[in-house]
Design a protein that fits this description.
7 helices
Length: 121
């Protein structure tokens, strides 16, 4: 792979991104190795949702980083809620204390379903 051409990470990222956007999980895996690249809460949330969908909702792999960025960097209530939901329901990363922490952050930012979830506990 890559024989006979000069190494160009930006081009590699671009093509892995295109493969990921087309629904190819292996391309997403390589694309995510370049790091999270989003510049607003909605951009991070949308990219996270796209990646989550590509992995067919079976894992938060990759999407979690985008949700965390939306929550922690851009103050997104929905981003916090999505992080909490990943920690609550994805068995590969399950962490109930982190789920509660992020549900609490989402609730404090006005996300009603997060508040309802916290009241159920």
């Amino acid at each position: 792979m890559g024989r006979g051409v000069n190494k160009n990470l930006q081009t590699a990222k671009e093509y892995f991104g295109k493969g990921c956007a087309a629904g190819e999980p292996k391309s997403c895996t390589f694309f995510l190795k370049f790091g999270v690249d989003c510049n607003s809460a909605s951009d991070c949330e949308n990219q996270g949702e796209k990646i989550f969908g590509i992995f067919r909702g079976s894992t938060c792999k990759g999407a979690l980083e985008y949700y965390e960025r939306a929550c922690d960097k851009y103050n997104s209530a929905k981003g916090c809620y999505d992080v909490a939901t990943c920690y609550k329901f994805d068995k590969s990363i399950a962490n109930q204390s982190k789920a509660k922490k992020y549900y609490s952050k989402a609730c404090k930012k006005g996300h009603s379903p997060a508040c309802v979830y916290l009241q159920m506990k």
